[in-house]
Amino acid sequence: MSFEIIKQSLPMFQQGFILTLYLSLIGIVGSAIVGIICSLVQYFKIPVLDKVLQVYIEISRNTPLLIQLFFLYYAFPAMGIKMSAQLCGIIGLIFLGGSYMAAGFSGGFNGVSKKQVESGKAIGLNRWQLARYVVFPQGFALSIPALAANIIFLIKETSIFTVIAIPELTNTALDLIGLYYNSNEYLFVLVVAYAIILIPLSIILTLLERRVRYGTFGN
Amino acid sequence: MAHSGINVLFEGTNLTRLLLGMWTTFKIAAVAIIIGLIIGVILGILRTFHNPILRFILRIYLEFFRIVPTVVLLFLFYYILPRQMNLHMPGTQVATLVFALWVAAEMSDIVRGALISVPIHQKESGLAIGLNRFQLYRYVLVPQAVQLELPATINLVTRVIKTTSLLMLISVMDVVNIGQQIVEANNQKYPTGVFWIYGLIFLLYFLIDYPLSWWAGRLEKKRLEQANGE
């Protein structure tokens, strides 16, 4: 392992690092928005739309991101729809993440105890009030662990972007290995780079989980 | 357009080759899952013991496999093993090893989580009637934990199957790799063939994973109903 090689590669890794963070951030925010919409539609059981979204969720959850990306990047142009690699990556990540986030939120809403819902009904809350004052506040708190896991999952999933040549972290490392064949050094930097993003994040998210656990009723 | 894209599937042995590729993928996933689940259960049980050193080591193992993306794990083993340890393995074996270790890590956490959520009075009752530690795990904790952990385990299996799509990155002749070759070979003749090839691969993955996640979802729902109905 040569320190010199590592030092020389750092500027390139820095660019990859920033791109990974940037794409992850857009992907996570986009996924969260799609997820909230899906889970609300399913919670209020809006006719037709909830069935359509259920189909989307099943497709998205049961197929690999890599194939979704290949579809967007290679198959769509054959049908006349051309997009840049980065746009494909973002769309793919949101397509995948949306269903995971939806499952996270729905799991939280469904996890609110029956007693809470029945008590709400008993004091005469209507459907909207029940959702607004009873189910959502507790449901969001309950869904935090799943959302935290999704955030980490989506960041790791950006490593698959390398297959459509988006120069994020993994792609940077593979490119460098292809050029100079110093696989030990570049893989080491790659692992460290992911650790720098994910270890602090997973600690913060664990702390957050602990905090919101006290936010649920009765603890 | 002289040829319709879908015909690319029926050209020569294309369809058979794709299905054979899927079979390769499936075999790697199956072997890795079986080995991984066995190791994972053992590690999970070990993680409930009160040995701080053992727990620390297993925790580090879990966190490493959690933090590092699977793509990177594959490359780590693919590049490092031959060069550092002089261990030359074909891509299929590297993939099986990586997936097995990954499944073992995730499974150890599922098993530990299930074991510690078996109500404490079950454990104490077991000890009270004079079971030793082995008997306690064998007859009280593990059977109850299995029921708790089954949905999570099935979900893990679907994740592994999805992740096998990455095998092409370490040059395993899996379904995606073969698909790519067919696309390249037939691009002139069938410009829209790419849509059908990747479409078929998409469908194949869906057909394997959907029944599994449906099953997991049903079990999970049943468990929630039981928990809510008490």
From TrEMBL, chain A:
<comment type="similarity">
    <text>Belongs to the binding-protein-dependent transport system permease family. HisMQ subfamily.</text>
</comment>
<dbReference type="InterPro" id="IPR043429">
    <property type="entry name" value="ArtM/GltK/GlnP/TcyL/YhdX-like"/>
</dbReference>
<feature type="transmembrane region" description="Helical">
    <location>
        <begin position="64"/>
        <end position="81"/>
    </location>
</feature>
<dbReference type="InterPro" id="IPR035906">
    <property type="entry name" value="MetI-like_sf"/>
</dbReference>
<feature type="transmembrane region" description="Helical">
    <location>
        <begin position="88"/>
        <end position="110"/>
    </location>
</feature>
<feature type="transmembrane region" description="Helical">
    <location>
        <begin position="21"/>
        <end position="44"/>
    </location>
</feature>
<keyword id="KW-1133">Transmembrane helix</keyword>
<keyword id="KW-1003">Cell membrane</keyword>
<feature type="transmembrane region" description="Helical">
    <location>
        <begin position="187"/>
        <end position="208"/>
    </location>
</feature>
<feature type="transmembrane region" description="Helical">
    <location>
        <begin position="130"/>
        <end position="153"/>
    </location>
</feature>
<dbReference type="InterPro" id="IPR000515">
    <property type="entry name" value="MetI-like"/>
</dbReference>
<protein>
    <submittedName>
        <fullName>Amino acid ABC transporter permease</fullName>
    </submittedName>
</protein>
<dbReference type="Pfam" id="PF00528">
    <property type="entry name" value="BPD_transp_1"/>
</dbReference>
<keyword id="KW-0029">Amino-acid transport</keyword>
<dbReference type="InterPro" id="IPR010065">
    <property type="entry name" value="AA_ABC_transptr_permease_3TM"/>
</dbReference>
<keyword id="KW-0812">Transmembrane</keyword>
<keyword id="KW-0472">Membrane</keyword>
<keyword id="KW-0813">Transport</keyword>
<feature type="domain" description="ABC transmembrane type-1">
    <location>
        <begin position="17"/>
        <end position="209"/>
    </location>
</feature>
TrEMBL record, chain B:
<feature type="domain" description="ABC transmembrane type-1">
    <location>
        <begin position="22"/>
        <end position="213"/>
    </location>
</feature>
<keyword id="KW-1133">Transmembrane helix</keyword>
<dbReference type="Pfam" id="PF00528">
    <property type="entry name" value="BPD_transp_1"/>
</dbReference>
<feature type="transmembrane region" description="Helical">
    <location>
        <begin position="20"/>
        <end position="46"/>
    </location>
</feature>
<dbReference type="InterPro" id="IPR000515">
    <property type="entry name" value="MetI-like"/>
</dbReference>
<protein>
    <submittedName>
        <fullName>Amino acid ABC transporter permease</fullName>
    </submittedName>
</protein>
<keyword id="KW-1003">Cell membrane</keyword>
<feature type="transmembrane region" description="Helical">
    <location>
        <begin position="58"/>
        <end position="81"/>
    </location>
</feature>
<feature type="transmembrane region" description="Helical">
    <location>
        <begin position="195"/>
        <end position="216"/>
    </location>
</feature>
<keyword id="KW-0813">Transport</keyword>
<dbReference type="InterPro" id="IPR043429">
    <property type="entry name" value="ArtM/GltK/GlnP/TcyL/YhdX-like"/>
</dbReference>
<keyword id="KW-0472">Membrane</keyword>
<comment type="similarity">
    <text>Belongs to the binding-protein-dependent transport system permease family.</text>
</comment>
<dbReference type="InterPro" id="IPR035906">
    <property type="entry name" value="MetI-like_sf"/>
</dbReference>
<keyword id="KW-0812">Transmembrane</keyword>
<dbReference type="InterPro" id="IPR010065">
    <property type="entry name" value="AA_ABC_transptr_permease_3TM"/>
</dbReference>
